[in-house]
Amino acid sequence: MELTEWLMANERPVRLGFFFGILAVMAVWEVAAPRRALTVSKAVRWANNLGIVVFNSFLVRLIFPAAAVGVAAFVAEHGWGLLNYFDVPFWLAVVLSVVAMDFIIYLQHVLVHAVPLLWRLHRMHHADPDYDVTTGARFHPIEIILSMLIKFATIVVLGPPVVAVVLFEIILNATAMFNHGNVRLPLGLDRVLRLFLVTPDMHRVHHSTEDDEANCNFGFSLPWWDRLFGTYRAQPRAGHEGMEIGIHKYRTEKEVSWLPGMLWLPFRGKVSEYAINRRAWRQGSDE
Fold first, then answer.
1. 208 - beta bridge partners?
2. Structural domains in the chain (count)
3. pLDDT tens sequence across 196-237
4. Which residue pairs from 19-27 have beta carbons closer than 8 angstroms and sit at least 24 positions apart in sequence?
């Protein structure tokens, strides 16, 4: 109980500490051992990608002042959720909660690729023409709001301990920055790591402009869901240095790297089915 109360009081500084600490580590690593050469100025991308993070954080706090931890505390107080209904040991409830919430993130990720209206929002994340640590936090504000609602619903149904929710949030943010890193890992280490964790080389395939490659490797933290449901692809056809990152149709710096263009991206063009809905992928899809 003391740990829960401490986390309730210090959740924000704890999460911010992990965020800035891991961001700094990844930023140095990207300079020391980059995987790919960037095509857009890092100053431009970082200013705009991190700018959307600041705006999203403000928006979430404004709309959802209690955040996920507050919902988890409310649920625990009222005894809601499966894990509160059954007599589950605390340590097991924490583990099950983290794994279950990661699975929901996987399903949500597949959903935003499968539903054209949701893909409109998600394509802001994919339109980044480069791939580095800041790409992992680049999401449209409307998608962030929808993600929060899905997270709240998951907490209400599952009834996870407050500790598990804080731990999950830290792990999700940390792994998103790690697996979006423009960093080079020894191939042998990567093969071992991706048995337990989504690695940069594994997730980078998902950011390919090729439709079939973009519709694979949906996992953010745990790699097991992609292997279990047949959405795993080991490597891109063109190799990691040769693959093209982004979306075919949206390539100009103004529309994909500057904040106004990024925010307007979901409202550009017509709604059309995305590759995950097709029986055969089309070379050079514009969506």
1. 245
2. 1
3. 999 999 999 999 999 889 999 999 999 999 999 999 999 999
4. 19/173, 19/177, 22/173, 22/174, 22/177, 22/178, 23/133, 23/177, 26/133, 26/177, 26/178, 26/181, 26/183, 27/133
Domain span including residue 221: 44-277
In a domain, 95, yes or no: yes
Lookup: tokens for 75: 């649920």
Q: Confirm if 164 and 93 have CB atoms less than 8 A apart.
A: yes
The string of pLDDT tens digits covering residues 154-206 is 999 999 999 999 999 999 999 999 999 999 999 999 999 999 999 999 999 99
Query: Concatenated DSSP letters for 240-270?
Result: TTTSPBSBTTB--HHHHTSHHHHHHGGGSS-
Tokens found for residue 11: 């959740």
Specify whether the CB–CB gap between 282 and 275 falls below 8 A.
Answer: yes
The model carries a pTM of 0.91
Q: Rounded distance, CA 129 to CA 139, Å? A: 14
DSSP state of 281: P
- DSSP for residue 206: G
Is residue 176 in a domain?
A: yes
In a domain, residue 35? The reply is no
248 domain-assigned = yes
Q: How far apart are CA 117 and CA 120, in angstroms?
A: 5
Q: How far apart are CA 256 and CA 252, in angstroms?
A: 6
